[in-house]
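Figure caption, in words: inputs first, then the predicted bound structure.
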Amino acid sequence: MRWFRPFRKKSPWVLHYNAGSCNGCDIEILAALGPKFDLERFGVINTGNPKQSDIFLVTGPVTYRSRERIVELYAQIPEPKVVVAVGSCTATGGVFRGMYNVEDGIDRYIPVDVYVPGCAASPQLIVDALVKGREILEAKSREIEKPLRLFGAIETIGHKLSRLKMATRLHEKGENDEQA
Ligand code: SF4
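Bound structure (iron/sulfur cluster present):
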């Protein structure tokens, strides 16, 4: 797992989901991915599969229709994962707040790691948020690896002890054979 961490940090894959946005923030995400802001220089790839994603990029207010899908997509993204809420709608409902079909902010349903302010959020801020997301992703990877490292250390000690036991047994057997 440890060897995997640099690759994840250098090339986080993103799942972009429109929860009910006016498309303003989505266009800015496309601009950030385009040649001018070139988000791909950080290794960011926009993927359509939650099971291959590291960063969940959500735009728009959470509507009654999209809330279950958001939770489902979030659950399908493997750990460690980072959630980036793009635009004021995703954070609070924004200009759609109080409408009959709109919930409040996304953090009522899933935990958010980075908020991108603005209506629409600018491509520069989206690039900044994803760079920050990479750092958070690496920190979360380290947290997940801690118990694995401990388990690995215990396993190594166990192997060393069993080898020592075997060597002692062989030595004793050799001595008994010499006496006989
Ligand atoms: S924050 Fe503004 S631009 Fe972005 S989805 Fe909401 S209304 Fe549209």
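Residues 123-179 form the longest helix (57 residues).
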